[in-house]
Amino acid sequence: MPRHRVHSRVMCWQTVDRAIALAECIGRPADPSWHRLRATIAADVPTHGWNPDVRAFTASSPQWTVGRPSAVRGPPAG
Predict the structure, then answer these.
(1) What is the per-residue DSSP string for 37-67?
(2) CA 9 – CA 43 distance, rounded (Å)
(3) Could you tell me if residue 77 is inside a domain?
(4) Which end of the chain has fewer CB within 10 Å, C or N?
């Protein structure tokens, strides 16, 4: 099973989120798949990137290696 870097996932979420915001800002519709992708990533990061035993985000998933919590920020809740 591949190890997915949690920080990379968060940066992908941010990129898609900003693309949606940019499309709205210039008055163009965002591709509907962008909204689904953003939601998928937002659900994946806390589900697979958070280790409740140490109460921190991990460096990668599914391996539970604790990363630098200050460097790994999840997508905003809600």
Answers:
(1) HHHHHHHHHHHHHEETTTTEEBSEESS--B-
(2) 11
(3) no
(4) C
- N-term to C-term CA, the chain: 30
Structure tokens at 58: 């991990």
Residue 78 falls inside a structural domain: no
Decide if 25 is inside a domain. yes
The pair of three-digit structure tokens given for residue 30, joined into one six-digit string: 């965002």
Q: What is the pTM of this model?
A: 0.69
The answer to whether residues 45 and 75 touch, using CB atoms and an 8 Å cutoff, is: yes
pLDDT per residue as tens digits for the range 48-65: 888 888 888 888 765 444
Please provide the average confidence, as pLDDT, over all residues in the chain. 80
Indicate the length of the chain as a whole number.
78
